[in-house]
Amino acid sequence: MRVLSERGASVLDEAVGEVMTRKVISLPAERHRRRHHGNDDDRQFRHLPVVDGDRVVGLISIGDIVQWRVQEYENEQEALRQYIKTA
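Given the sequence above, the corresponding structure tokens read:
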């Protein structure tokens, strides 16, 4: 989709292999379970495959990551409110 928006409809005549990402970046399952979702790479991806060894076990999107981060911040704010109330 990115290449289509950058180069126009003429890209549809090319082989997929000519425009697809060559080096797939994945997220190890252990890192996914810890919910450590920082992208250590300068490239920006909307989706990351989650792998366990050589097996793809899932797919996360930027929306998933944003949702988890917002929930973390909301939980932290609530914990701080409770702490302040009891102090």
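The mean pLDDT is 82. Try to locate this feature in the token string yourself.
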